[in-house]
Amino acid sequence: MNRKKRKSNVGTMVLKEVLIFCIYIAVFFGIMLLVRNFALQRTLVNGISMENTLHDGDILLLDKISYKRGDPQRFDIIAFEQSSSVYYIKRIIGLPGEKVRIDDKGNIYINGQLLEESYGNEVIKGSMDEITVGQSQYFVLGDNRNNSKDSRDPSVQCIAKDKILGRAFIRVWPIGSIGKITQ
Question: What predicted TM-score, i.e. pTM, was given to this entire model?
């Protein structure tokens, strides 16, 4: 009878350990789901519009929380939804209410002041008449300025804040380039 009791106790203990293990796994996946939906998102760079900063095939993590607590800043690299199945990654240049103009030499002006920046891959070809960025909107450019579909394009225009998925903050692929993305 002792043997049966020990076997029963061992079986109960094993079942209890398996149950605890399953609960740990469920909690882990629950936390990961919450993080993915509310804090971080993985995204893929598709194309050359952000070269030399980002490259085709890079995998980035987006911070989805910081813009819920504050506003995007000039030079942030963001991912935004262009349509239901199209997402772009660009750099914020103009903020809400600002006037943005590009002269025939490729210089960018914000409210009449020359923008000091070094992110452009090359001098912008062509000019753009002055526009005023709408409230809760952002003027974005790709770093590869002459090979980028961005706010200069009528199909993209300025980006509404609610279309921004998040701020790119870390590159996780390729392995040799893992690290923080400098804004």
Answer: 0.76
Active-site residue, 136 included: no
Catalytically annotated residue among 64, 66, 90, 155:
90
Look up residue 143 and give its two tokens.
């770093």
Residues 31, 160: Cα–Cα separation, whole Å:
30
Catalytic one of 49, 64, 148, 151:
49
Are residues 81 and 9 part of one domain?
A: no
Active site residue 84: no
Retrieve residue 147's tokens: 């090979």
Query: Which class for 117: exposed (0-12), middle (13-18), buried (19 or more C-beta within 10 A)?
Result: middle
Task: State yes or no: pLDDT of 72 exceeds 70.
Answer: yes
Q: Which domain holds residue 137?
A: 41-180
Q: Do residues 75 and 106 both lie within one domain?
A: yes
Tell me: the pLDDT tens digits for 30-43? 666 656 666 667 78
Distance CA 55, CA 86 (A): 18
Percent of the chain with pLDDT over 70: 86
Domain holding 142: CATH number?
A: 2.10.109.10
Residue 10 scores a pLDDT above 80:
no
* CA–CA distances in Å: residue 105 to residues 27, 113, 143, 152: 57, 15, 17, 16
